[in-house]
From TrEMBL:
The keyword Transferase does not apply. Residues 58-224 form the Band domain. This is SPFH domain-containing protein. It comes from Chryseobacterium luquanense. PANTHER family: BAND 7 DOMAIN-CONTAINING PROTEIN, MEMBRANE PROTEIN-RELATED. It holds the Pfam family Band_7. The keyword Signal does not apply. It is a single-pass membrane protein. It is found in: Membrane. Keywords: Membrane, Transmembrane, Transmembrane helix. The chain crosses the membrane at residues 12-30, 42-63.
């Protein structure tokens, strides 16, 4: 589990290191300036001071904004530093840099079957960042590769759980094409569940590409067009029937003309042809009667 660590400021250690480095150089020069009889004591003290300086400098750590360091002490997790600035830690600690910035992942276009077995192409774009440095560092091998692989698995599972549209499943409550925010919400939850073990936070996930696979795209387009035409024709017929019924009622109520069943049938036929035809009707002048 992640532990937040707040080390001491590194400015004092930096000043001490610089003073020791300067003193080491001065003692070394002073010790060898004694001609043929250099003072070994000063030289030894200068060498010791130099190694102490190097030891202290190794403990200095600079952390940039939105970055962190995961600290270990001979294989034991010590804590994570998320504050930014100059710090001093135990020089024997080993540290691992880790970015806390948000990152984009543009997933590759995957070819997968939807719930109805139709091959489709789908791709997602997601925004993620490291939330738990301990899990990201120790629970998975390489968390960036883990994010890529699990995001692909989540997209495949999403595509196989819902139909592309409701052409084959009229009762589907959610489809990939029309699901919108609901589908994106399901995708975000799927990614969160899969990536939480690596300490990854999903900030946003959206479908960036969705289409039928090329081998069936033409057939599905024709099917969509046919469905649209049938729906439009159904509306036209429903409207035409209502108009014909209204016309017959008006003629009867206002006693404009008396129509027997045969004349009504002929009128209905003519009106349906005019109202439902794709082209404008051509008027024909009838100088006779229906029976002659």
């Amino acid at each position: 589990m992640e532990k937040s660590l707040k080390p001491m400021s590194g400015y004092l250690a930096l000043v001490i290191s610089l003073l020791l480095l300067g003193g080491s150089a001065y003692l070394f020069i002073y010790g060898i300036n004694d001609g043929e009889n250099p003072d070994v004591t000063y030289i030894i003290i200068s060498i010791i001071s130099f190694f102490i300086t190097c030891f202290l400098l190794k403990g200095l750590m600079i952390i940039q904004p939105n970055h962190s360091r995961v600290l270990n002490f001979f294989g034991k997790y010590v804590g994570s530093v998320k504050d930014n600035g100059l710090f001093f830690i135990n020089p024997l600690y080993s540290s691992q840099k880790m970015s806390l910035r948000s990152e984009n992942l543009q997933g590759q276009t995957l070819k997968v079957n939807d719930k109805m077995g139709n091959p489709i192409e789908i791709a997602v774009v997601m925004v993620w960042k490291v939330g738990d440095t301990y899990k990201a560092a120790f629970d998975v091998e390489r968390y960036s590769d883990f994010v890529k692989m699990q995001s692909e698995a989540a997209v495949r599972h999403l595509a196989m759980s819902f139909p592309y549209d409701n052409l084959e499943d009229d009762h589907a409550p959610i489809t990939l094409r029309e699901g919108g925010d609901k589908i994106n919400s399901i995708l975000e939850q799927e990614l969160t569940d899969r990536l939480s073990k690596a300490g990854i936070i999903i900030q946003e996930a959206r479908i960036s590409h969705l289409a039928y696979a090329s081998e069936i795209a033409g057939a599905m387009l024709q099917r969509q067009q046919a469905t649209a035409i049938v729906a439009a024709r159904t509306k036209i017929v429903e409207g035409a029937v209502g108009m014909v019924d209204l016309a017959l009622k008006k003629l009867s109520e206002e006693n404009i003309v008396e129509l027997d069943d045969e004349r009504k049938a002929a009128m209905v036929s003519n009106l349906m042809v005019v109202l439902c035809g794709e082209k404008a009707a051509q008027p024909i002048l009838n100088a006779g009667t229906l029976y002659n």
